[in-house]
Amino acid sequence: MVTSSATALSASTARSLTSMAFEQLRADILTGELRPEERLRIQGLSERYKVGATAIREALSRLVTDGLVESEDQRGFCVAPVSVDELVDLTRTRIQVEQLALRQAVAQGDIDWESNLLSSFHRLSRSEAPSSPEKHAAWTTAHRQFHEAVLAGCRSPWLMRLCRLLYDKSERYRNVAERQPGSQVRDVDTEHRRLMDAAMARDAESACKVLEEHFWQTAEITLKAGFGGQATRKKLAR
Hints:
Blueprint: H1 4-31, E1 39-40, H2 42-49, H3 53-65, E2 69-72, E3 76-79, H4 84-108, H5 111-126, H6 133-151, H7 157-178, H8 188-200, H9 204-226
Antiparallel strand pairs: 1-3, 2-3
Helix pairs in contact: 1-3, 2-3, 4-7, 4-9, 5-6, 5-8, 7-9, 8-9
InterPro entries: GntR_C (IPR011711), TF_FadR/GntR_C (IPR008920), Tscrpt_reg_HTH_GntR (IPR000524), WH-like_DNA-bd_sf (IPR036388), WH_DNA-bd_sf (IPR036390)
GO molecular function: DNA binding
Pfam family, one: GntR
């Protein structure tokens, strides 16, 4: 006879496996390891991540909800496609949402916000350029922490949740583009310093302008690298 405690333990283990599969799949999609429109076969993924088929199916269903995976009747799952139109729309939306959070952060941020912003910028500026998988992981973590630190003073959990979602979507595009030959190099350290300096100076207008320029430059480089030069002035009209 199966006890209630054994049943609870089994359910907990199943949730853990699903969560593990979800995080690994999500990371591989965001970094570009799993390419846009790539077929996601249950058996292959089960072998790749060393978890059962049930956990893989549940993880894929969660990723469908997040918009990173698509499901088609009779055809199974595939990585969600990317497109010029989506990236331009995503960039515009991200700018609007993050500028709202940034204005609130500049107005409401306290000494803890300032301290965290300074330390996160220092950590990012000391992180080596992502020239290898190990360095890429460390830089990506520092980069995310910096952008979150800029906005954290807004004191709005919902705004921060939206900003994290948009960040993830944007990172996927950037990572896919970086895997293309001839990706452009830019002085992101200076861009990040300008953003930090404007925020620390409590200059909301300047900070929002720097943020907008920073995101559009990323979008333009991503479009040129990832979409065969399809970035046009019309597409990038602001």
